[in-house]
TrEMBL record, chain A:
SUPFAM superfamilies: MetI-like (SSF161098). The chain crosses the membrane at residues 12-30, 97-122, 134-156, 176-198, 236-262, 282-304. InterPro entries: BPD_transp_1_N, MetI-like, MetI-like_sf. The lineage of its organism: Bacteria, Pseudomonadati, Pseudomonadota, Alphaproteobacteria, Rhodobacterales. It comes from the Bacteria. Residues 95-305 form the ABC transmembrane type-1 domain. This is Peptide/nickel transport system permease protein. Keywords: Cell membrane, Membrane, Transmembrane, Transmembrane helix, Transport. It is found in: Cell membrane. It comes from Paracoccus isoporae. It holds the Pfam family BPD_transp_1_N.
UniProtKB/TrEMBL annotation, chain B:
GO terms for biological process: transmembrane transport. It comes from Paracoccus isoporae. It is a multi-pass membrane protein. Residues 65-255 form the ABC transmembrane type-1 domain. Belongs to the binding-protein-dependent transport system permease family. Its main location: membrane. Pfam families: BPD_transp_1. The chain crosses the membrane at residues 7-29, 67-93, 100-123, 129-148, 183-210, 230-255. This is Peptide/nickel transport system permease protein. GO terms for cellular component: plasma membrane.
Length: 320, 272
């Protein structure tokens, strides 16, 4: 396990470097000089040169990359071209919305998908088993923002139960209002996410139901629910966890769209604004932090899988 | 049961394709002209009502079908082609090159479609049909490439490949006459599934304002505009949404039915 942990950590670090390189190159491929964001229309030569010097785009690209890496090593994500504020604190401030949103939606989705998925597999021959599978198939075809718009319309505008959009000015200093403004976004994400999750849980459970060890446990006198809980869940969880990692990552990024529906000032809206205004440091910062989070989630999912499944743990060498 | 899914899928996709083709020749109203009062409720003249500029929603939803299918087909063709080539190449490459490519694909896959699409749109002169296809197709190609690589390796390990090599067949011939025919059914099903995701991705992009510009507005853009008037004209949100769901559901049914028909043994969840 220790050896695997070491190897997996090295892979994580390498992926981070590669991802940083990819982002750097992609963003430099964009046409137009980033310095243009600093200038007003009709700027003269001297102003352009000054702006280029301030941004650093007058330097050759390898010098820019070297500077980028050394800044990164000092956790310096640069200063926004538009607001002239450091990028990292703003990202942290916005993560205070995006992160709770993602994690709460994820937990809610699991709470919906796991029991329903198991039920759909165990009772695959009953009408409600079929109905659950059908609903999850339908859920896969629904875009998340559509659910969001409908929920805003019904719950917030028609029934006036919750705020329609936005986030309180004082942020988490006003915990009730902040929490309330996140309820609808959380439900929106969870509904769509649980649809795809449910399918994985269902197929993992179906595999478990076919397994010999479950039949043996039954033959040894264990009741069906007990056998399923003692042997089934641990076995079924292994494939589901790697899917969970991917789903959590995509939820984090899918939050971009949901934040737009509910006008939440999270990481997604920062990214959209940055792209609109060609604010390279902001875009780069947001993408770097989200990539870091995505890679960390994958890392955690892999480790968790090994902890649950001893077969993976003992399998040294080429486990991939 | 599976034949049933295939037929329902064909029906839903055919319906959308029919409407998309129809828009090339005929539209109920001019999508850019005022066709009636503002934010009219549904009526015989305007089955889905009108938007805040008095433009007909039905016309716009019909055009949306064309946009969704164009982007879906374009992205699926691009992603399928690039993905298959890359995957076969990786499977044939030397160990180190193959490992490098596989790791790169894993990172690309972790990088979500939407972000990649945003970068492509930001990198080009502005959003258009082309940027949407390019962005979604590129993201798709990584997923297809990973699948093709695994499938090709599985084929290459078979005895009949060794036999073909012994009888003097070159690698090019082996790819054409042994590898491709064997992996094609599975790749086809995977591409079909990605097609459905591409339609949703396109809608999300347009919803964020990064899709096709008007008057060729896609469903995503319609939804974005209709969001602010949903309390007065709910059909503006409901109709494009249901149209989109019918297309994606149809494609997914088609893919499921196709898998059973072609007997593709791949785990579909793996191909997503």
């Amino acid at each position: 396990m220790a050896r695997y942990l070491l190897r997996r950590t090295i892979v994580l670090a390498l992926s981070l470097v590669v991802a940083g390189l990819v982002l750097f190159v992609l963003l430099r491929l964009l046409p137009g000089d980033p310095a243009a964001a600093l200038l007003s229309v009709g700027a003269d030569e001297a102003q352009i040169a000054a702006a280029r010097e301030q941004v650093g785009s007058d330097q050759p690209i390898w010098v820019q990359f070297g500077r980028f890496l050394s800044d990164l090593a000092r956790f310096d994500l640069g200063v926004s071209f538009v607001s002239n504020q450091p990028v990292l604190p703003e990202i942290m401030e916005r993560l205070a919305i995006t992160l709770p949103l993602t994690v709460a939606a994820f937990l809610l989705a699991i709470a919906i998908a796991v029991p329903l998925g198991i039920l759909a597999a165990v009772r695959a021959d009953r009408w409600y088993g079929v109905a659950i599978s059908g609903l999850s198939q339908l859920g896969l075809a629904i875009p998340v923002f559509w659910i969001g718009i409908l929920l805003v319309w019904l719950v917030a505008v028609e029934w006036r139960l919750l705020p329609a959009s936005g986030f309180p000015m004082r942020g988490w200093a006003d915990p009730v209002a902040a929490g309330q403004s996140l309820i609808l976004p959380i439900i929106t994400i969870a509904v769509v996410m649980s649809a795809s999750l449910l399918r994985y849980v269902r197929s993992a459970t179906l595999d478990v139901l076919d397994a010999d060890y479950l039949r043996n446990a039954r033959a040894l006198g264990e009741s069906f629910p007990r056998a399923l809980i003692r042997h089934g869940i641990r076995n079924g969880a292994v494939p589901v966890i790697s899917i969970l990692g991917i789903e959590l990552a995509s939820t984090l990024l899918g939050a971009v769209v949901v934040e737009r529906v509910f006008s939440l000032p999270g990481l997604g809206s920062m990214l959209l604004l940055g792209i609109e205004q060609r604010d390279y440091p902001s875009v780069q910062g947001v993408l770097l932090i989200t990539t870091l989070l995505v890679l960390l989630i994958g890392f955690a999912a892999d480790i968790l899988q090994r902890m649950i499944d001893p077969r993976l743990r003992d399998n040294r060498g080429s486990a991939r | 049961m599976s034949r049933g899914t295939l037929w329902v899928g064909l029906l839903l996709v055919g319906l959308n394709a029919g409407v998309a083709l129809l828009t090339l020749f005929w539209l109920p109203y001019d999508p850019t002209a005022m066709a009636g009062g503002r934010l009219q409720p549904p009526s015989w003249a305007h089955p889905f009502g009108t938007d805040r500029l008095g433009q007909d929603y039905l016309t716009k939803v019909m055009i949306g079908a064309r946009i969704a299918l164009s982007v879906g087909i374009g992205a699926a063709a691009l992603g399928g082609l690039i993905g298959t080539c890359l995957g076969v190449l990786a499977a044939f490459a030397r160990r180190s090159a193959d490992d490098g490519l596989a790791a790169t694909l894993d990172i690309l896959i972790a990088f979500p479609t939407l972000l990649l699409a945003m970068l492509v749109v930001a990198a080009s002169e502005g959003a258009s049909l082309g940027t949407a296809i390019l962005a979604i197709g590129l993201a798709m190609s990584a997923i297809i490439a990973r699948l093709v690589r695994i499938l090709t390796k599985r084929v290459l390990a078979q005895d009949y490949i060794t036999a073909a090599r012994c009888s003097g067949l070159g690698w090019g011939r082996i790819v054409v006459s042994h590898v491709l025919p064997n992996i094609l059914p599975t790749v086809l099903v995977a591409v079909a599934l990605q097609f459905g995701l591409a339609v949703i991705a396109e809608a999300s992009l347009s919803f964020l304002g990064l899709g096709t510009p008007p008057p060729n507005a896609s469903w995503g853009q319609l939804l974005q505009q209709a969001q602010s008037t949903v309390f007065r004209a709910p059909m503006g949100v409901i109709a494009p949404g249901l149209a989109l769901i019918s297309l994606v559901l149809g494609i997914n049914f088609l893919a499921d039915g196709l898998r059973d028909l072609l007997d593709a043994e791949v785990d579909l969840e793996e191909a997503r």
